[in-house]
Specification:
Elements: H1 3-38, H2 41-45, H3 51-84, H4 92-114, H5 121-124, H6 126-150
Helix pairs in contact: 3-4, 3-6, 4-6
């Protein structure tokens, strides 16, 4: 076999795989569309009408966010204290990770209260951006769960 035959056979297999993927995607879309159309709107809304599940999700997520914000705030205070005493510091990646996973509000408060990491662009710009993103996402998710739980 020369290279042209190998390329031709490879191209045929890729074409057949592409057709299979395309047909599979079309089949999945048609199946989902048929399922969704069959459900009337009140039935699909009923998915969120389980008050106990929504209540657990709401309070669980609220508790998680509260703990992450307190943790981020304490981490910034601890790092500032260790910096003053010239001890082993908290890694910047750990501080940023705590803010990324729900603690941006606590991190931002910690930056301003302890006047720590204010010169680093990663923190002085990145944490407020994370704060806005988390504010939008958290208010949407918690508002949605609270609406279906309490109203």
């Amino acid at each position: 076999m020369d290279i042209h035959e190998v390329l031709q056979i490879t191209g045929q297999y890729l074409y057949m795989a592409g057709v299979a993927v395309k047909n599979g995607a079309i089949w999945l879309w048609n199946a989902f569309y048929a399922w969704y159309i069959k459900l009337p709107l009140p039935t699909s809304i009923k998915l969120f009408s389980n008050d106990m599940l929504n209540r657990y999700l709401f309070f669980g997520l609220s508790l998680f966010l509260l703990i992450m914000n307190i943790r981020a705030f304490v981490m910034f205070g601890s790092d500032k204290s260790k910096a003053k005493r010239r001890q082993k510091r908290v890694r910047e990646s750990k501080l940023f990770r705590a803010c990324f996973f729900g603690g941006a509000i606590g991190g931002m408060i910690g930056i301003h209260v302890f006047n720590h990491k204010t010169q680093k662009k990663r923190f002085s710009v990145g944490i407020p951006i994370l704060f806005v993103i988390q504010l939008v996402i958290n208010s949407f998710v918690l508002g949605f769960l609270a609406f279906w739980t309490f109203f």
